[in-house]
Design goal:
By secondary structure, the protein is an alpha/beta fold. It has a single domain, classed as 3-Layer(aba) Sandwich (Rossmann fold), CATH 3.40.50. The chain is built from seven helices and eleven strands. The strands form two sheets. Strands 7-6-5-8-9-11-10 form a seven-stranded mixed β-sheet, sandwiched between helices. Strand 6, helix 3 and strand 7 form a beta-alpha-beta unit. Helix 1 packs parallel to helix 2.
Length: 223
């Protein structure tokens, strides 16, 4: 078997931990010390997150915010499933993840950062959300491993009642919050409803073809 080779390492801002980018043949993996966060073989659910949200919110001049660049699969799917006048902002906390996409990962998803419709902010998506009100038609959160954060405790605030209330106000009427998670979380569903969202929970395969694990997507609509 081809061994994994480390090709990048970076600190997580505001946290005493780091992530690594590894490659094995044509397969890539982003990991913490103990947990695999992303793998290029298991990208189906990240694409489905954007596809589902965009297909439910087709309108001219859409504004989409993506929290977490990852390997670029969600951004690429948002570009493919929105109209040509849609504009997409990606908030990525870790500058190295943006660098890795440009240097190592972009070819996996058609070089989405090169699209003139895409803009990257190297900041916490919670800050981006907090700085705006009624601006976004879609907010997609693929931060950490979902509502139960594994890499950065500060991410918990994003999925708390206070964080969800800020997201609610940052959405335009009929806007959609889409959230990706490696696992279902009934308490998170309850928090979404408490914050006045209309909620659908969807279980999707991690990989679109063949057998794979299951991931969870929440689509929460602002009435």
């Amino acid at each position: 078997m081809i061994p994994w080779r480390e090709i990048g390492r970076a600190d997580i801002p505001g946290d005493n931990s780091e992530i690594t980018l590894k490659r094995r043949g044509e397969e890539f993996s982003i990991r913490t010390r103990d947990t695999e966060l992303m793998n290029s073989r298991l990208n189906g659910s990240e694409e489905t997150l954007a596809e589902l949200a965009c297909n439910r919110t087709q309108k001219p001049d859409m504004r989409i915010l993506i929290g977490g660049l990852g390997m670029g699969y969600t951004l690429s799917a948002a570009l493919s499933n929105s109209q040509p006048d849609a504009r997409i902002t990606v908030s990525e906390l870790i500058p190295a993840v943006v660098k890795w996409n440009r240097e190592h990962l972009g070819h996996l998803t058609g070089m989405p950062l090169e699209s003139p419709r895409a803009t990257v902010k190297e900041e916490d998506v919670a800050k981006t959300i907090g700085n705006t009100e009624a601006k976004w038609d879609i907010i997609l959160l693929d931060v950490d491993n979902g509502p139960e954060g594994l890499t950065r405790k500060a991410n918990d605030k994003l999925y708390s009642n206070a964080g969800l209330e800020k997201t609610f106000f940052a959405l335009r009427p009929n806007g959609i919050l889409g959230v990706w998670s490696s696992n279902d979380d009934q308490s998170f569903t309850h928090r979404l409803k408490q914050c006045k969202f209309m909620v659908n929970t969807i279980i999707v395969p991690a990989r679109k073809s063949g057998k794979s694990s299951k991931h969870t997507i929440w689509l929460a609509k602002k009435p």
